[in-house]
Design the sequence.
């Protein structure tokens, strides 16, 4: 009896268009589409990413102390204290609470990711669109410049940018902005290449031709007809870049070019501060911020990987067809980290 | 060579008729390819050197950056004008470009050494580390990738794929810290940091005309204790940096072997009754290695970035370690020089790798 009562409401929404629309949402759709190991990887990735987002959102509630707090009512925390009831993950060499720094660090990370991705998406997509659509000398110059930047160690480029923007030392927003812009410069060529390649392909399609015949302006064709069809591969690059942004931010912080410890908590900085602790066997100051980085990057990479495998039947079929040498390169995360010309050539080639 | 070429052609059905068309052009195709590819280095290096110059200079002159708080305004102005930093930026740029062209990258501000000298002294250490890391990457990535392909969609495959993603998700410096915690300060099996113990370093200095590559020098010295010491110091940094690339190799080999296992000629061999193991070893494995060569070019850039972090973690006194020191000292002339040199290294390596790839695989020379 109970089942007959509960069954109809479960069946009914299946025909409801709003529910169907919900199922077609990017990640939800792929989650339903996936099977076996693939689904496990996607679910694990989504859980880790979700955990990261929740931690960032509720950081002030979750963290027992402030990110730069050195003492409470009972007096100073003390430096390099092992994990205890008051400090679950111990304290750092600077006397901060490790757990609080790790939790607050997720906020810094997510702010940097958001700013970096929004900026690079705007700049990269716009440049790629204009470059691919109009072609000519501007296109050639941009391609050569982006190739050069692309082939360069991204961390070194980020260091140079960090010097330019903040001179190396930073406040909270200055530091976040500096790190984000440094990462942006590294990412722009990636978006540029993908969008440009797609634009070059799409602008020769019949529907663009007919739009032109009807009298649509360049701008309208670019935004309406080309851009909407050129953004297919962006979600994948987005997730992979988010994980890359975290690694670059941590790298900058580790080299002392991140955010001051009093301005915000940043995992890379904490790892740098923990460098000397390791020699004396103090493990809690380095393991926890490091694990935070690994888990977040792992989560984002798993989501990106799974989306790539599921959402793009071209790559999937190419892989099955056997010539994986071009298809695989863009999805190698290590490759994407510094994918270089070969990586996105792969994407370009699939369109030829 | 001919069998390799046929296997390759079979490896990509779309390209099956390509070798016939290419062979008509013969080796002339390779020659012009190499030339064009070589000429492409010039704009790449030029753009990078120019970009780095203007970016670094947009913050002001290096002397103010390095000594800003320590000198009075007059002293500062005098030093700036002595070094010629008060001239128009474009004039300085042309001079810098001319100097770089003749191999002069300037003099460091903090310790007054020619940047080229810094580069030759510490470059060898970075080279040594990069080679070790590549050895680790090959030794770990290729066999495991093959195993994962062989066990496709079974548990070893799942474990290895997660391992590969972990290799990527772990920052090199964190990998280094964990390795240090476990094997150096924990178990005490390996040294914590440095390229050699003090005693070994002193012994190595007695060698006249040292190469700077410690392993080579130690071998020339013929002292087995020093050789062992140098190798012991290299293990942890090489593993930390090598695992990053190993993950990439693992995935690449896995996908490519799975790809070649599904091709027509493997199917044909299977239908002739060739054993599954032999199919994997002889037919599918070798052509799957070729894309690795192309990826090495990209990995060099990754390794250079990783070397900066690894060297800092392990106090490995190479270019990356030195770069971090100069960054701390705000010595931007040195930073600019090292970054420019690394740009040249990356560009040249990519060229060499592309040429090797073209020699092996005729399809590359389009």
Sequence:
């Amino acid at each position: 009896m109970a089942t007959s009562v509960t069954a109809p409401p479960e069946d009914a929404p299946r025909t409801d268009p709003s529910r169907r629309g919900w199922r077609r949402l990017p990640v939800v759709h792929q989650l339903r589409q996936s099977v076996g190991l693939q689904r496990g990887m996607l679910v694990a990735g989504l859980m880790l990413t979700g955990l990261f987002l929740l931690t960032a959102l509720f950081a002030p509630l979750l963290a027992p102390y402030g990110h730069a707090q050195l003492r409470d009512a009972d007096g100073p925390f003390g430096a390099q204290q092992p994990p205890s009831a008051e400090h679950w993950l111990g304290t750092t060499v600077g006397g901060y609470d490790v757990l609080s720094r790790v939790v607050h660090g997720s906020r810094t990370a997510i702010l940097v990711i958001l700013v970096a991705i929004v900026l690079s998406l705007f700049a990269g997509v716009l440049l790629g669109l204009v470059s691919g659509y109009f072609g000519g000398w501007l296109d050639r110059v941009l391609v050569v410049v982006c190739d050069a930047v692309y082939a360069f160690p991204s961390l070194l480029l980020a260091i140079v940018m960090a010097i330019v923007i903040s001179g190396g030392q930073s406040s909270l927003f200055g530091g976040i902005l500096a790190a984000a812009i440094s990462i942006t410069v590294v990412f722009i060529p990636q978006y540029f290449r993908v969008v440009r390649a797609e634009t070059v392909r799409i602008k020769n399609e019949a529907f663009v031709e007919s739009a032109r015949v009807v009298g649509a302006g360049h701008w309208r064709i670019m935004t309406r007809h080309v851009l909407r069809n050129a953004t297919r591969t962006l979600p994948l690059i987005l997730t992979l870049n988010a994980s890359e942004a975290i690694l670059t931010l941590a790298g900058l912080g580790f080299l002392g070019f991140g955010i001051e410890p009093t301005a915000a908590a940043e995992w890379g900085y904490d790892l740098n501060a923990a460098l000397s602790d390791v020699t004396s066997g103090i493990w809690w100051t380095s393991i926890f911020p490091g694990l935070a980085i690994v888990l977040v990057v792992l989560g984002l990479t798993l989501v990106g990987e799974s989306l790539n495998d599921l959402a793009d039947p071209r790559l999937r079929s190419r892989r099955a067809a056997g010539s994986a040498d071009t298809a695989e390169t863009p999805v190698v995360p290590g490759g994407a980290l510094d994918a270089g010309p070969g990586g996105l050539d792969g994407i370009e080639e699939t369109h030829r | 060579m001919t069998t390799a070429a046929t296997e390759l052609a079979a490896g990509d059905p779309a390209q099956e008729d390509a070798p016939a068309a290419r062979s008509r052009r013969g080796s002339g195709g390779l020659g012009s390819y190499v030339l064009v590819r070589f000429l492409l280095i010039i704009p790449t290096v030029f753009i990078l050197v120019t970009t780095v110059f203007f970016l670094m200079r947009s913050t002001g002159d290096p002397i103010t950056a390095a000594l800003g708080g320590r000198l009075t305004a007059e002293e500062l102005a005098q030093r700036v004008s002595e070094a010629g930093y008060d001239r128009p930026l474009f004039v300085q740029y042309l001079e810098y470009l001319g100097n770089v062209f003749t191999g002069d990258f300037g003099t460091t501000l903090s310790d007054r050494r020619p940047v080229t000298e810094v580069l030759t002294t510490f470059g060898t250490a970075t080279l040594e580390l990069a080679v070790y890391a590549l050895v680790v990457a090959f030794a770990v990535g290729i066999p495991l990738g093959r195993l994962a392909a062989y066990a496709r969609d079974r548990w070893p495959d799942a474990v290895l794929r997660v391992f590969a993603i972990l290799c990527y998700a772990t920052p090199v410096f964190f990998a280094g810290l964990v390795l240090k915690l476990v094997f150096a300060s924990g178990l005490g099996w390996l040294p914590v940091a440095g390229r050699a113990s003090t005693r070994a370093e002193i012994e190595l200095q007695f060698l006249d005309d040292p190469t700077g590559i410690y392993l080579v020098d130690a071998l020339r010295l013929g002292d087995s204790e020093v050789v062992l010491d140098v190798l012991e110091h290299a293990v942890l940094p090489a593993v930390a940096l090598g695992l990053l690339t190993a993950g990439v190799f693992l995935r690449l080999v896995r996908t490519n072997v799975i790809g070649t296992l599904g091709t027509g000629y493997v199917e044909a061999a299977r239908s002739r009754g060739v054993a599954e193991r032999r199919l994997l070893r002889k037919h599918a494995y070798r052509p799957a290695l070729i894309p690795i060569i192309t990826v090495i070019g990209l990995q060099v850039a990754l390794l250079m970035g990783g070397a900066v972090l690894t060297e800092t973690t392990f106090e490995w006194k190479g270019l990356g370690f030195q770069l971090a020191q100069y960054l701390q000292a705000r010595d931007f002339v040195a930073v600019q020089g090292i970054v420019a040199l690394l740009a040249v290294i990356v560009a040249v390596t990519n060229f060499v790798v592309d040429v090797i790839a073209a020699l092996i695989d005729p399809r590359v020379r389009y």
